[in-house]
Amino acid sequence: MRRSPGRRGGPKGTSLPPLHVEACATPDPALLLELQLRAIRHHGGEAYGPSELSAWCDAAREDAEAGLLRGFQTYVAHRGGHLVGYGCFSGEDGLIGALYVEGDQMGQGVGTALLAALEAAALAQRMRTLYVHASLNAVPFYLRRGFTALVSNAYELPSGLQLAMVRMVKDLGG
């Protein structure tokens, strides 16, 4: 289990409980979906309009029901006994399928710790690169962590709506 030290920055400078990031062989899809939906609603409005957010949430539900990320390697982050984020990637091609953080935990190191766990797992499997189709609000996060933007594209949601994304890649040097 990876442990990150508690960080200052809670209410009125209080210390946050330690962050625990670990591999999760049997994730609870319903729990992860609920976190994903909260994160989309909390962060997504920075880059997308209400109709796009609604369609994105609908697509997330459909993807979860279809088991779209089944077979991906999943890591979860807990703080104070609560799930505060998760991320997953494909060990076959290095696609980051998801990286979501609870709204009140943004800026507290959760996403960075999850991404570090994904990168470490990919390196342990001798993968050379990771890539992601990043939502527009997530692009700055990935850029700050060494990813390069390759191309802007659109992900067609089941509703037919096009959700703007950016394909990004990181050379792991492995």
From TrEMBL:
Gene3D superfamilies: 3.40.630.30. Residues 1-10 have a biased composition (Basic residues). Residues 19-173 form the N-acetyltransferase domain. Keywords: Acyltransferase, Transferase. Pfam families: Acetyltransf_10. This is Putative acetyltransferase. The keyword Hydrolase does not apply. It comes from Stigmatella erecta. The keyword Acyltransferase applies. Residues 1-20 are annotated as: Disordered. InterPro entries: Acyl_CoA_acyltransferase (IPR016181), Bact_Acetyltransf (IPR050832), GNAT_dom (IPR000182).
